[in-house]
Amino acid sequence: MSEHEPQHLYDGPAHLECEHGAWDVGVALRGVFQPIDGHFHWYGRVGTTLDGVRNGQTVTVRTDHGEAQGRLSDLDPWGRFRISGTGKPPF
User: Fold this and answer.
1) pLDDT at position 8, please?
2) What positions does the domain DUF4873 occupy (predicted)?
């Protein structure tokens, strides 16, 4: 694996896992460093529905560039969850 320079956005494939299952999905993720709390905050949208998962569920997000814990929230009308996390992002 080659060295990956940290980015502020990622649109691509990801693998999500939790106790309810595992999914290969597309994600659109963004992030920004917040100087007020000194942490990197990342967020975005999962591109497909996740059967058996509920709002507020914590999932592991893996991309070719890394992995991180994220929390699902805000289900949109198309059944896609918003995802967010703090700290080192999975991209």
Assistant:
1) 83
2) 9-91
